[in-house]
Amino acid sequence: MQHKTQLTLSFLLSQVLLLACAEDLECIPGFQQKVFYIEQPFEFTEDQPVLNLVFDDCKGNNKLNFEVSNPDFKVERDGSLVALKNVSEAGRALFVHARSEHAEDMAEILIVGANEKRGALKEIFKIEGNLGIPRQKRAILATPILIPENQRPPFPRSVGKVIRSEGTEGAKFRLSGKGVDQDPKGIFRINEISGDVSVTRALDREAIANYELEVEVTDLSGKVIDGPVRLDISVIDQNDNKPMFKEGPYVGHVMEGSPTGTTVMRMTAFDADDSSTDNALLRYNIIKQTPIKPSPNMFYIDPEKGDIVTVVSPSMLDRETMETPKYELVIGAKDMGGFDVGLTGTATATILIDDKNDHPPEFTKKEFQATVKEGVTGVIVNLTVGDRDDPATGAWRAVYTIINGNPGQSFEIHTNPETNEGMLSVVKPLDYEISAFHTLLIKVENEDPLVPDIAYGPSSTATVQITVKDVNEGPVFHPNPMTVTKQENIPIGSIVLTVNATDPDTLQHQTIRYSVYKDPAGWLEINPTNGTIGTTAILDRESPYVQDNIYTALFLAIDSGNPPATGTGTLHITLEDVNDNVPSLYPTLAKVCDDAKDLRVVVLGASDKDLHPNTDPFKFELSKQSGPEKLWKITKINNTHAQVVLLQNLKKANYNIPISVTDSGKPPLTNNTELKLQVCSCKKSRMDCSATDALHISMTLILLSLFSLFCADGDTET
User: Fold this and answer.
1) Across the strands, what pairs with 683?
2) Helix (H, G, I), strand (E, B) or coil at 394
3) b vs e for 108-142, b when ≥16 Cβ sit within 10 Å of the residue's Cβ?
4) Contact 415, 398 (CB under 8 A)
5) Pairing verdict, β 104-112 and 35-39
6) Using CB atoms within 10 A as the burial measure, which of 188, 350, 440, 494 is most buried?
7) How confident is the model over 68-120, as pLDDT tens digits?
8) pTM exceeding the 0.85 threshold for the entire prediction
9) Cα–Cα distance measured from residue 620 to residue 636, given in angstroms and rounded to the nearest whole number
């Protein structure tokens, strides 16, 4: 209570002084006192004044309005801060934002505990263990030594003394350990006679905070006569390290319209000094805010925790009305508990005001016009919209939908990802003769849903009027493709088909003429007037121009427009097979050794270009053999193959075996051909078919042939 009375008296005194000097001071717009300290009561009582705030815009305070960061408090018109209900816990601080027609300002009210003080420095010397004289070994007394860091020259500098209770006559002190004869060497040394300990250079507590040395006493020969005894040297911390922010960059996000007191981010600094002293006791504050609109105090930082929170009302966190959605705060961290003697480190916190979908997209006009030629597809018009939300988010990106006028699904609309425009396209060609005008109703929405208190309005729909332009369309064949079946080899001049093409431009009353466009084999012609197609050559199913028994030709239908338009029709003629190809025999050459034991010479096969049943089974026969005796025979293996067998070994020579092969067509066709048989000499797995005896063989065959004229043989054996 005494503390609160002191605060109240201080405030009243400041007000009296302000009033006394008012005539002599130039008016400064804003709160006349910006920071207040009040003691945390057991409870803030409803409607009881907490303190009085004085705000003056120097122009009459017209339309003055106060906003308090805690909704449980309000500021009356006379500047009294009162609680709206009984409040037992109000936090560590309250912020009051005042705004009039001509000025605005922020006041900070800090709430402190009854026993809370600004704090003295903590004990600067902190030595673990007992700082009194420890139990010593023998007669050496080595009390701990405390040395401040960062001492200035001259060096060496005496820092302590080791004594021996039994006297030092004829004895020497010897010092050892880290900092003496171990790295870092040469920091400490001892006077071997007096026991004075000195330091040779400045110490850095952040490098080494404690040294554990040993002291011995030796005789003149170097023999240890006492010790070793431990000597502790502690480095006293000095405030020689300013706080540092090591975790940057610091970027925080807060949604626009967030409630007052929303935590944005936490800033944490590090101080290399002794954490048990005020040298590393940090307090945070906001040094600078950029920009300063709409308020120079948009954020507050908890002095102890480093939490940055919003302190303005949700209506002031409106991303679309801000100068920029990015704020940069220069944050200071000061050691020594924030007192002026402390060292300060700074860092920049970037706070981004994130967008929420609180603005629906709106078409830039209620009606759009488009013109498209019939028969054409593609984009016909771009629909433009405006949206005040962030272009990098789904709250800005538009989604378009055709909600009426598209029963045939002839139109589609997609979003241009760069401009957010709606690209309306024709995906099915339009027909002027069916409809010359189309009216579409289109709505636009965002990818993200709107916030609950916002809805899509009439400006989120638009009408598109589409005019279809008439063009001279080419005639259309019916049907297309056209199919017909004909036998191959029909007479030249036969009628194949009469085509039918119509002009879609029914209002133009045009005539149509026909012509051949592509006739690969040159078999067809068309009457230019009535479209009758006839043959000009024999249709051959086995022609290379026929694929899978189908011959394809293209025809044109040309209207009388200016310029004329053309339509293309496709004709597929399926050709039925007739037996017009004799079978062929393979192979036509065979070889055999003159002393062969296996007299099966060769297996013959037959093929036919025609189709079944004009092909196999084939009939294989030998023509009448010449000579006094039979030399070979032919035997059927299956429907397509037969085997030629010698009835005896023959002399080395070339023989021609007459063979006929007949297909199964009606009527059947026969191919009379010869199989050339070479009888060769074979020695040591080598076959010699040279014609050295060709003349002899030929003469022999001639004589045999003459003899056969007189001696006709019997039936051919098969």
Assistant:
1) 686
2) coil
3) bbebbeeeeeeeeeeeeeeeeeeeeeeeeeeebbb
4) yes
5) parallel
6) 188
7) 878 888 999 889 999 999 888 877 778 888 888 888 887 888 887 655 433 32
8) no
9) 7
